[in-house]
């Protein structure tokens, strides 16, 4: 099983640690693409900060993020699961998992990154700012770069297992699995007074809790139906939708976060 997570927009900048070494990151087939994007991003941020901010969709009061990108090769790094922050990662809380569950996280989780393509929780990275819909001068849309490279690495990591795709639409555009890949996507619906709707906070927090529960349980479902069964065993209300182009969607219905 391979669980693909979205990155967080907010990141916790490490205060100490070795500088970035792209050759130490997992998914080594992505090293060249990582270097291309890294070089283009740094070159952009070494120029006019206002131009860089506009290109990256950063407000005029956030020029410190341009500075952050300018120093990517020398900034301290930390484990990716410590750098990515936000609702999903707070709910997942990898640092407090059991030893066995942390081993499973290292083997089964991958974060989709506009800068690094895919990273494992244990990969050491710096904090950065680069949205998945960004277009870098001289390189083009980062999504287009990753569409050329992610497929082979993700497919090799997945093998014949189940892909649990928790990426948002923006990051889902980096790689579309081929029809022969078994894919389960998860949608979280908040049910209140008989009505259901998607609420961002509930969606992110519940996905974090789902991943945490799966890792702790040791469940390793091989099909969307087996995943739905595993989640029900863990206490979730799950409805399985008909297969579509993106795989089988599982609706997880919650009444409170």
TrEMBL record:
InterPro entries: YaaA. Residues 1-24 are annotated as: Disordered. It comes from the Bacteria. PANTHER family: PEROXIDE STRESS RESISTANCE PROTEIN YAAA (PTHR30283:SF4), PEROXIDE STRESS RESPONSE PROTEIN YAAA (PTHR30283). This is Peroxide stress protein YaaA. The lineage of its organism: Bacteria, Bacillati, Actinomycetota, Actinomycetes, Propionibacteriales. The gene is yaaA.
């Amino acid at each position: 099983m391979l669980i693909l997570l979205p990155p967080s927009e907010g990141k916790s900048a490490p205060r100490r640690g070795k500088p970035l070494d792209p050759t130490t990151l997992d998914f080594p087939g992505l090293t060249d693409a990582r270097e291309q994007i890294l070089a283009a991003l740094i070159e952009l941020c070494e120029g006019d900060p206002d131009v860089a901010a506009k290109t990256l969709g950063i407000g005029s009061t956030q020029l410190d993020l341009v500075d952050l990108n300018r120093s990517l090769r020398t900034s301290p790094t930390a484990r990716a699961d410590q750098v990515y922050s936000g609702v999903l990662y707070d709910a997942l809380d990898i640092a407090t998992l059991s030893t066995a569950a942390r081993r499973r996280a290292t083997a089964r989780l991958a974060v989709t990154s506009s800068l690094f393509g895919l990273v494992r929780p244990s990969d050491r990275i710096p904090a950065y700012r680069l949205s998945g819909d960004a277009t870098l001068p001289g390189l083009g849309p980062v999504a287009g770069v990753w569409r050329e490279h992610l497929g082979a690495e993700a497919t090799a990591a997945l093998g014949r297992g189940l892909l649990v795709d928790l990426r948002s639409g923006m990051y889902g555009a980096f790689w579309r699995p081929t029809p022969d890949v078994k894919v389960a996507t998860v949608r979280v619906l908040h049910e209140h007074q008989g009505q259901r709707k998607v609420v961002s906070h509930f969606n992110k927090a519940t996905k974090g809790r789902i991943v945490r529960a799966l890792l702790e349980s040791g469940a390793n479902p091989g099909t969307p139906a087996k995943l739905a069964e595993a989640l029900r065993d863990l206490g979730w209300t799950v409805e399985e939708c008909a297969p579509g182009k993106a795989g089988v969607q599982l609706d997880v219905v919650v009444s409170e976060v």
